[in-house]
Amino acid sequence: MKVLVLLGGNSPERDVSLRSGENVSSVLKTLGHEVYDYDPINGYEGLNDYAGKVDCVLPMLHGRGGEDGEVQLELEKRNLKYLGADPRVSAITFDKVEFKEILNKLSILTPKSEVVNKQSFMGSELIKKPFVLKPIDGGSTIDAFIVRVPSADTVDLAVFDKYPQMLLEELIEGDEITVPILGDAALPVIEIIPPQGKEFDYENKYNGATQELCPPVNISSELQAKAQKLVEKIHREASVRHLSRTDIIIDKDDNLWVLELNTIPGMTSQSLFPKAARIAGISMEELVQKFLDMVIA
C-alpha cells in the first residue's frame, strides 16, 4: 500500500510530531508498505504531488495545524483518505471551550472554567483557589500553568502577549488517568504519576521521570471500567473517528472529571497510546496496520 505520513508542521508540538511521524513511518516500512513523508511546515501545496497517488494518509501532526481541522480540510480538498476526525470534529474537540460545551450538554463532569485575558485573569474568583491557566487551543501542556497554592504571582503575565485569551480552570486534585480509544473501543487505562513534588508538564511528559502505569495500581478495576465506558461515550457522541485519547482526573470521592480529548495522540516510542495498545496485546506493527485498515474500510 502507498502511504503518506504527515509529520512536523509548525505548531509548538513540532518536535513530538516529528518523533511520532518518524516512528510510524519506520513501522510502515517494516510492514512492507511504500511510504512517503511530508512536512507541511511551509504549507500544503506539496500535498498536490500525492493526490490520487497514495492509498491513504496518516497525519501525525500534533497541535495547531494538525488537530484543529486545518490539515483535514486540505486533505479533503484533494480527496485524500486520512486517519482521524474530520475537519469539523477536529476543530470542536481541539478548542477546549467548545469541547467543554459538549461535555456540559452530556452532563459529564469537567472543571469549572472561564475564558480570560490579562485583566480579567487578575480579577477572577477562580484564582482564589488552586487553578490551571492554559491555552484554549494547544496541547502537551505547553505554556500551561498549574498553581496549587493560589497566587497570581506564579503566572508570568507575558504569556498573554502570546495568547490574548486563555482558559482559566479550577484545579481538581486527584489521580490522573488517560484513556485511549482505538476504533470505537477503549484500550487499557493508564495511570499517570508525575515525579514527587512536580507536575505532569511538558518536560516531565518526555524525560522519562513520570510513571505511566498500565494497568494502574491505584485505580480500582471498577473505576477503570467506568472511565472506559465514559470515554467511549464521549468519543461516540462527539463523532470522533478511528482514535482518540481522553485525560481525566479522579477526585477523592471517585468522581471522574474530564479535562480534554486528543484526536491525534502521540505515537512516539514513549507515547501513551502505543503503550496502552501493547498492554492490550496489540504490537506497534499491528496498531499501525489497524490504522490503515480503518482508513480504507
Which helices and strands, and how do they pair?
Elements: E1 2-6, H1 14-30, E2 34-38, E3 56-59, H2 70-77, H3 87-94, H4 96-105, E4 113-116, H5 118-123, E5 131-135, E6 145-147, H6 159-162, E7 166-170, E8 175-182, E9 185-186, E10 190-193, H7 202-206, E11 211-213, H8 221-237, E12 243-250, E13 256-262, H9 272-279, H10 284-296
Parallel strand pairs: 1-2, 1-3
Antiparallel strand pairs: 4-7, 5-6, 5-7, 8-9, 8-10, 8-12, 10-11, 12-13
Helix pairs in contact: 1-10
CATH H-level name of the largest domain... which superfamily? Answer: ATP-grasp fold, B domain
CATH class of the largest domain: Alpha Beta
CATH topology (fold) name of the largest domain: D-amino Acid Aminotransferase, Chain A, domain 1
Number of strands: 13
If classified by CATH, what would the architecture of the largest domain be? 2-Layer Sandwich
SSE-based structural type: alpha+beta
- Radius of gyration, in angstroms, nearest whole number: 19 Å
Please identify the oligomeric state.
Answer: single chain
Query: Residue share in helices?
Result: 25-40%
User: Which of globular, elongated, flat, extended, rod-shaped describes the shape?
Assistant: globular
Number of helices: 10
- Cα(first) to Cα(last) distance is 14 Å
Largest sheet, in brief, is: 6 strands, antiparallel
User: Unreliable segments (pLDDT under 50, ≥5 consecutive)?
Assistant: none
> What amount of the residues lies in strands?
15-25%
